[in-house]
Amino acid sequence: MHDILLGPDCTTMTDVRAGVDQVDRDLIALLARRFAYMDAAARIKPERGAVRDEARKAQVIANACAAAHVAGIPEDVVADLWERLVEASIAYELAAFDRR
C-alpha cells in the first residue's frame, strides 16, 4: 500500500495522483454528510418556500470565501464552487421536500 503524502512532500506524479485521489474520496464522503443535512432540512422545514433562503446562501458562500482566504487558496474559485454547491444543495433539498 502506498502511503499518501502531503503535497509539499510529493516527489513523483504517482505521489501527487495518490494524494489527489484520496482527497477526492474524502470530499465525496464530506459531500454525502452535507447532503444528509439537506435531507434533514427538507424534513424539518414546514413549507417548500422555506427551502430557498438567499440570505443564508450568501452567508454560506461568504463563510467559504473567508475560510479560503485563511487557507491561502483562491477566493474567487471557492466562490464559484460554493455557488454551484449551494444551488445543487437547494435543488436536492427541493426534491427531498417533494418526496416527503
TrEMBL record:
Domain of life: Bacteria
Keywords assigned: Isomerase
Chorismate mutase domain segment(s): 7-97
SMART domains reported in the protein's UniProt record: CM_2
Any Pfam family matching the protein: CM_2
E.C. number: 5.4.99.5
The protein's name in its UniProt record: chorismate mutase
Native source organism of the sequence: Sphingomonas psychrolutea
